[in-house]
């Protein structure tokens, strides 16, 4: 008889492993599966107890003929900036699509802070060495008071055993309600006004407080808050916002809206490296071959000439994700704008362009936007690519605006109408740049940091510079008369001065066309897009 011992074959011993695995519990497929997992069960219990403490609803018998909004549990891993697990998050979310307009919701609009406003406030705080804190509001939408009568079902798995058929008559808003963001913002705005804050007219999500010679700025993006003040004492007194709302003081700003913020002696460095890696992982391009520029120098791609891409949903997801990456990566703004123009019907050639952009990002994931300690004077560059679209012959205009040495606003956009001559396209681009500059001037005035001199707008077209200061009217310029008068009025008021700049120093070229590698690298560094 041949046994295992004689042949030298041994079965592995199964020894009880008492070590706890570091791997997080996977996302549950249903609320029943979540209830069986102790980590997710604890997260669901925390959410339910928060709803009860907040007096979110009252259990009532279901009235006849009313609309009962349904809901579901949403599960998510909350991660640290380095990608490690922070906590398990369970959220009871109602299905807003089951609401009926005019019955259980009315107005739904709620503003969020503009990216340019964030960069302006951070630039001012950096220039003056102000402390910058970030805060997070817990269960944000639960603080909003509902004006409408809304009924919803009890949370699955936590129905009251004594009244299992009752429904919840909501007193406070819930996540998923169409009016939830609006009710939270209105409630938070009323509270800030009671503290003495004033809402900005340029950006209603910016709040300004002035006490004597001290200043404080507060930015709101749903439940994420940035707070900075000219004195530490004023900042500490305002951190007590948590007495009214359940808030977490996250300390000095370090991670806001998915943006890593690193503070040094030279200023602030804004980076989205982790987010860029997530996009590359989603596209299965983490090990691709990097490339030096996001687009080539050839003409723009046609939206109709080519083979349709086989998976347009995949294309749209990646293009939409790249849009958010432009918050700190203006160097890819033009490429992303070209990708988003054809999201309705992408072609294979457009997907090849998308892959090229991802290859460029893979080689520059550690790049970000640098904000220096500098002055508060505005400087702008504007440019246009006339009739560059091969399908519509519309022009692409772009601009960038600097606050001191910091770039705070930029744009790459196709013009709405066809321009009959290059001068028309050039002047429309100048008008857009001047409009943005005037908005920033008004914003700085509200922040009690008004510009000390006129905004310098640099352009590389002599005709546009000449038309901005000379009252010439003839057949060539009659069809852009509104833009002419707008720019001339601002020049006459002393708010703006349009000057000529050589093409070799026209940094706005990055936002209108593909550039050679050497020129692109020089302009990229001039825009303060630097390695971290």
Offer a concise description of the structure:
The chain is of the alpha+beta class. The chain contains 14 helices and 22 strands.
Task: Describe the structure in your own words.
Pfam families: RVT_2. This is Reverse transcriptase Ty1/copia-type domain-containing protein. Residues 54-295 form the Reverse transcriptase Ty1/copia-type domain. With 532 residues, the chain is α+β, with helices and mostly antiparallel strands. The protein has 14 helices and 22 strands. The protein starts with a helix and ends with a strand. Helix 7 (273-282) packs antiparallel against helix 8 and helix 11 (422-446) packs across helix 12. The chain is 31% helix and 23% strand. A 6-stranded antiparallel sheet has the order 8-9-10-11-5-12, sandwiched between helices. It has a 5-stranded antiparallel sheet with strand order 13-14-15-16-22. It has a 5-stranded mixed sheet with strand order 19-18-17-20-21. Strand 8 (198-199) and strand 9 form a beta hairpin.
Q: Quick one: overall form? A: globular
Beta content comes to 15-25%
Quaternary organisation of the protein chains: single chain
The structure class reads: alpha+beta
N-end to C-end Cα span: 70 Å
Helix content: 25-40%
- Strand tally is 22
Rg is: 28 Å
**Largest beta-sheet characterization:** 6 strands, antiparallel
What is the overall number of helices? 14
| pLDDT < 50 stretches | 14-21
* Spatial order of the strands forming the largest sheet: 8-9-10-11-5-12
Write down the overall mean pLDDT: 89
Domain Reverse transcriptase Ty1/copia-type: 54-295
Pfam family, one: RVT_2
InterPro entries: DNA/RNA_pol_sf (IPR043502), RVT_2 (IPR013103)
Protein name: Reverse transcriptase Ty1/copia-type domain-containing protein
């Amino acid at each position: 008889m041949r046994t295992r011992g004689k042949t030298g074959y041994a079965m592995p011993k199964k020894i009880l492993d008492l070590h706890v695995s570091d791997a997080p519990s996977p996302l549950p497929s249903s609320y029943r599966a979540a209830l069986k997992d102790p980590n997710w069960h604890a997260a669901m219990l925390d959410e339910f107890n928060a709803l009860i403490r907040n007096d979110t609803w009252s259990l009532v018998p279901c009235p006849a003929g009313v609309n009962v909004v349904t809901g579901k549990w949403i599960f998510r891993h909350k991660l640290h900036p380095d990608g490690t697990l922070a906590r398990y998050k369970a959220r009871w979310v109602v299905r807003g699509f089951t609401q009926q307009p005019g019955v259980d919701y009315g107005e739904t609009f709620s503003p969020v802070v503009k990216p340019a406003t964030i960069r302006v406030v951070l630039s001012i705080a950096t220039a003056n060495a102000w402390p910058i804190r970030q805060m997070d509001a817990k269960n944000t939408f639960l603080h909003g008071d509902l004006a409408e009568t809304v009924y919803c079902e009890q949370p699955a798995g936590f129905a009251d055993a004594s009244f299992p058929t009752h429904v919840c008559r909501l007193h406070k808003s819930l996540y998923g309600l169409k009016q939830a963001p609006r009710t939270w913002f209105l409630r938070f705005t009323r509270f800030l006004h009671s503290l003495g804050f004033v809402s900005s007219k340029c950006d209603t999500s910016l709040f300004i407080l002035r006490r004597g010679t001290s200043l404080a700025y507060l930015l709101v993006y749903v439940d994420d808050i940035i707070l900075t003040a000219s004195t530490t004492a004023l900042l500490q007194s305002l951190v007590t916002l948590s007495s009214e709302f359940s808030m977490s003081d996250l300390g000095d700003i370090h991670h806001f809206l998915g943006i890593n913020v690193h503070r040094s002696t030279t200023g602030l460095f804004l980076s989205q490296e982790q987010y860029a890696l997530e996009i590359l992982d989603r596209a299965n391009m983490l090990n691709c071959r990097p490339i030096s520029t996001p687009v080539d120098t050839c003409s723009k791609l046609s939206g109709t000439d080519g083979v349709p891409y086989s998976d347009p949903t995949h294309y749209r997801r990646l293009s939409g994700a790249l849009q958010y990456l432009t918050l700190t990566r203006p160097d890819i703004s033009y490429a992303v704008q070209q990708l988003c123009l054809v999201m309705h019907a992408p072609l294979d050639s457009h997907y090849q362009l998308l892959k090229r952009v991802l290859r460029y990002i893979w080689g520059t994931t550690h790049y970000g936007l640098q904000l220096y300690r500098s002055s508060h004077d505005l400087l702008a560059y504007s440019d246009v690519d006339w009739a560059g679209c091969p399908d519509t012959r519309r022009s692409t205009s772009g601009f960038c605006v600097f606050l001191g040495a910091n770039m705070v606003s930029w744009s790459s956009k196709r013009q709405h109408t066809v321009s009959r001559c290059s001068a028309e396209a050039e002047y429309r681009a100048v008008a857009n740049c001047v409009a943005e500059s005037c908005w920033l001037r008004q914003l700085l005035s509200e922040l009690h940091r008004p510009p000390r001199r006129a905004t310098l707008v640099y352009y590389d077209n002599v005709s546009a510079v000449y038309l901005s200061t000379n009252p010439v009217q003839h057949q060539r310029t009659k069809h852009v008369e509104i833009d002419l008068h707008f720019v001339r009025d601002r020049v006459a008021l002393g708010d703006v001065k349009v000057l000529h700049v050589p093409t070799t120093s026209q940094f706005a070229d990055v936002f209108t066309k593909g550039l050679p590698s050497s020129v692109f690298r020089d302009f990229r560094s001039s825009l303060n897009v630097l390695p971290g």
